[in-house]
Design goal:
With 114 residues, the chain is mainly α. It has one domain (2-103): Orthogonal Bundle (Helix Hairpins). The chain has helices at residues 7-28, 32-54, 63-94. α1 (7-28) runs antiparallel to α2 and α2 runs antiparallel to α3 (63-94). The longest helix has 32 residues, at 63-94.
Length: 114
């Protein structure tokens, strides 16, 4: 199938595949590190689609799309760091790094004293 795709279709098709793979991981996995990784894979797919669409045509690629993609990568890195910090905090409070059903229950020794 790849030999039938020209370069202007390869990036959007690869980006759509990455997005679908990340969405599958986001839905199927319970561990928070795997979910954060799945979100990053989905974001990479969106960036690939965006750059593939920006490079279409005979002229030069759109520099605004490249600038927005670089900005998106910086925001994605900072959001990933924040999500990992929240996950570590949740793991310290509950002893689990997975999403449990129901309300958050903390371990008795982690509760603040009145």
């Amino acid at each position: 199938m790849i030999e039938y795709l020209d370069p202007s279709q390869l990036y959007p098709a690869g980006g759509a595949a990455l997005f679908a793979l990340g969405l599958h991981g986001l839905i199927r996995r319970r561990h928070l590190v795997l979910r954060i990784l799945a979100l990053n894979i989905m974001g990479s797919g969106v960036f690939m689609v965006f750059l593939g669409v920006a490079a279409r045509g005979d002229g030069p690629p759109d520099p605004v799309a490249h600038a927005l993609t670089l900005t998106g990568i910086v925001v994605a890195v900072s959001a990933t760091a924040f999500a990992l910090a929240l996950m570590v905090r949740l793991a310290r409070l509950t002893g689990y790094a997975i999403l449990l059903p129901g309300p958050l229950k903390t371990h008795p020794q982690n509760r603040p004293e009145p």
